[in-house]
Amino acid sequence: MLKRSLTIAAAGLMAGCGVSQQQEVQMGQQEAQQVSAQLPMVQDAIIQNYVNNLGQRIARTTSRSDLNWQFQVVNSSTVNAFALPGGFIYINRGVLERASNMSEVAGVIGHEIEHVVRRHSVKQMEQAQGANVGVGILCALTGVCQSGLAQAAINVGGTAVFAKFSRTDEVQADEGGFNNVMRAGISPRGMYTFFQKLLAEEQQSGSGNAAAWFADHPGTTDRIADIQRMLNQVPASTLNSLQTNDSGFATMKSRVNQLGPAPRVQGQ
Ligand SMILES: [Zn+2]
User: Fold this and answer.
1) Nearest to 123 by CA among 88, 163, 72
2) Which of 55, 217, 238, 252 fits a 20 to 30 Å CA distance from 178?
3) Domain carrying residue 216
């Protein structure tokens, strides 16, 4: 009964109005709590600060600079990154391990930021017709999910938040991410070189640690071609004037290399 009435209320919420920024942030906060309960984070302050400062630098240049952006490093050597509604961005340690310079990390962060700028998760939820998805959202919005029954529902909602973005979303995130990085004065070449590196790793091993990125980010070969096309449109003098590396990168990398082996995390 509880579940049914929640579903109806949620359906009304979904049909009646869009998700406001405040609701989006509340959903993100709720999801972020689940993420920190379920995924190990890198505790090293130098690594966390490096990624957070770089993320803030890029996020500040976007149309959603008013969000309380947060950037965290997940202690997983798998190459992956994800964004929650409201500006919570997670970069796996595996991205840092493979990056050769600051602009490669920036390319991944810029891409995830654009998912938030374009509210891809929110749009997906607004379009979702499934009742369970509505229940999850209502739980997130009202904090009604303290009970066991409601907790089961929010797990379903959580799955919806983590649902795969469409190919179109990914292309948009690349294009927007490319521009986000450039506006921050950083070379977008890093996005291209990093994606190429992942593709090469994937082709060599067939599966392995790069696989998660490709599963979550469809159409990689086409996307690399798109980024190449965008790069070709930027004058060489502009590209050369943009930053590729910074002094903190090497320090951050040496800290990453000193970390013990990452714990194995299911689905990461
Ligand atoms: Zn993406």
Assistant:
1) 163
2) 252
3) 2-254
